[in-house]
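To: structure desk
From: M.T.
Subject: fold request, one chain
Message: Could you run this one when you get a chance? Sequence is below, nothing fancy, just the single chain.
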Amino acid sequence: MSGDPNAGSAGSVDPATVQTLSELASALQRLRGSRSYADLDKAINPNHGREAPRLLPPSTLNNLLRGKSAPIRQTVTRFLTACGVEGDAQAPWTAAWERATTAHLRRPIGAVRVREARPRLLGVHASIQVDGAEGELPTYVPRDFDPELRAAINAAAEHGGLVLLVGSSSVGKTRAMFEAVCAVLPEWWLIHPDAADIEPFRALADAPLPRTVVWFDELQRYLDSSHGVPAGLVRRLVAAGTVLVATLWPHEYAGRTLVRAPGRPDLHANDRELLGVANVIHVSDDFSPAERRRAETVAGDRRIRVALDTPDTGFTQVIAAGPQLIHHREHAPAEQCYGKAVITAALDARRVGARAAITRDYLAAAAPAYLNPVQQATAPKGWFLHAISYAITRLNGATSALTPVPAGMRQIAGYEVADYLYQYAGRVRRTTHLPDTAWQALVEHHDPGDALLLAKNAARRGRNGSAEALYRQAMDCGNSSAATYLARLLAKQGHIDDAMAVLRPYAYAGDGYATFYFVPLLIEQGRLEELPQLGNARAAHAAVQFAGVGADQGLIEEALAMLQPLVDTGEAQAAEGSAHLRADDNQGDQPSSTLHPLADTNDYSAARREVYALAALDRIGELAQRFEAGDWLAGERLADLLIKHDQTDQALDVLRQLADAGDDSAGERLVNLLVVHSRIDELEAEVAAGTAHAVETLWRCTVS
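Reply: Done. C-alpha cells follow.
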C-alpha cells in the first residue's frame, strides 16, 4: 500500500478468510477505506476526459461493494489496482474472488481445491533427505519453460484445453506442472482419475462442471488402460472449458503420434487424435545455465546444494535419487544378490509388458532365475523377505527400486518399479532375454489385463509356449483379438487345424479380424462347404481377396470355385468378384486381382491379407512395388523373401529403409544380418547412424 491517507487498513483485511460474496464485498469495502467512487475511477484511469468511458463506473462499484452480484475478474483487479494493491499482492484477493464466485457450484466427485492438493499424491517424486532440510519437498527452482507453461494453463482456463509436458523420468515435469496449476488456478477444483477406474472422468465428461482441472500424470497409464481415455471425451471436456493437464515420456509421445504406415492397422488412432488436441511443451533432461543460477539463489535448502554440487548427474535426477537407484541394483553387496535378483525380475517383467503391480508370487517364482547355482543352493532362511526389504529400501529418503502398492490396510497388492530405474534398464537390458523360469512365472502370475501384451512380447521373442498360454488366458478374459494372434502363431508353426479351431467360434460370431484369417485357412484346406455357413459380408470380402491372389497366378477356375459357394447363397460381393474374374478371363488378359481397388479404399485388413498372400507366393516384384509405394508391411515381407533367396544386399537395403523410418524391429534384423555375414564395417556405420541395437551388437562382436 502507498501512503495515501484515503487508504484502508490493508493489514487488518485478510482475503484468506473470504468464502462468500458478502464476505468478499465486506473485505473490499474495508480495503477501499475513505476513497470515493470518483477517486477509485481516477486512480485506475487518471487521464480520462469527460467523454471517455469510466473503467469503474458507480453502478459497477456499487454492485461490487454491496455484494449484489458476482463481479468479473477484471473488475476486481481494477479495483485492487485503484486501491494500490498490484502485482503478486493481488493473488490472495483473486483467489478470494474465485472462492466466493464459485461457492454455489457443485463440487466434482472426489475433487479437492488445487491449493489443497498434495503433490506427492499427484505423482511428484519424493526428494532426497539431508540433515537440516525442512519440508517434504525442496524449494521449487523456477524453470525456463514456466512462463510458457503458465500461459498455456491460463489460455486453457479461458477456453478449455489439454496442456502436456513431455520429458523423461525425473526431469521435474510433474513438480513444474503442480507449481504452475497452483499459481494460476489455486481455487479451481482438481480431480485425479485412477488409471484403473476412469468412471469419474467419464461422469465428468457427461456433465462437465466449471472451473475444474483434470490431472493425468503419466498419461500413458491412462491410454494403455483396458478402458482407456477416448479422444471424444477429451474434446467434450475441452469444449466445456475444462483444463486437462498431463505428463508423458518422449518415446511414448513419439510412438503414439506416428502416422500409421500403409498396410498396417492403426493401433494408436485414438492416442494420436487425443494428443493432437494438446498444447505440448517439451522438458529438457538437464538444467540450463539460467536454471542453475536460479537454483543457487535458493541453495540455502541443503537438498538444492547437494544437487548443484553433483555435476556429473542431472539436477532433478539427483533430487529424486535416480543415480542411487542404479547403483543400488548394479552394485549390490554380495550378500544382497537376492535383492538384486528380485529387482531385476521386476524390471524384466515390466519390460515385456507387465503394467499392473508386480506380485510377490511372481517375484518369488522368478528371482531364482537371476541367481547362479551356488547362490540358489546357499540361500539363507528367509532370503525372499530380505530380498524384498533390500528392494524397497528408500535411498536418501527419496525413493526405492520397488514401491509397495496397497490392497487395504496392512496389505500389499504388489510392487511398482521406479520409473527412472525402468527407463535406464530399458536401455541397458533391451536385448537381454528373459530366463525360461521368468517367462513361466509370468504365465502363472500376472494381471489379466496384461495378458495380451505379455503374449505379444513372448511371441516376438520366440517364446511360443509362453505366448500360447498367455493368448489363451487373454481369450478367457474376453479379449477376442487374442484369438487372431494365437491362430497366427499356431499357423506359423504348421498347426493349421488348431489355428482353425481357435478362430472358428469367433468367425461364426462375426468377428471381423478372425474372419479375415479364418477364410483363407478354410480355402487352403479345401473346406469350401463352410464358407456359406459364416453368413456375413466379411467372409465374402476375405474370400474375394484370396481368390484374387489365385487369379493373379492364372488359377481362374480355382478362384471361381472358391467363390461359388458364396455366389450360390446370393452374396453380392462374391458375385461381383466372380464377375470380375470371368471378365478378365474372357478378355484373355493377365488377370488383375480385385484386391487392389479394395485395398485402395483404406481397407487395411484386405491390404494385409494381400501382402501375406503375395509373400506366400514368392511375388518379390509386386511386394517391391508396394514397398516403394510406402507399404511397410510389404517391406518386411519383402526382406524375408530376399533373405530366403540369398539376395543379401537387396535385403539389407530394404531393412535400412525401414530402420531409417523408425522401425526398431527392422533395425534389429538389419544388424543381426550384418553379423551373420561378418560385415562389421557396415555394422560400425549403423552404429554411427543410430540404428536400434547396433551399439549393443557391435559391443558383443568386439568382446567375443
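Reply (cont.): The CA atoms of residues 642 and 651 lie 5 Å apart. Let me know if you need anything else for the meeting.
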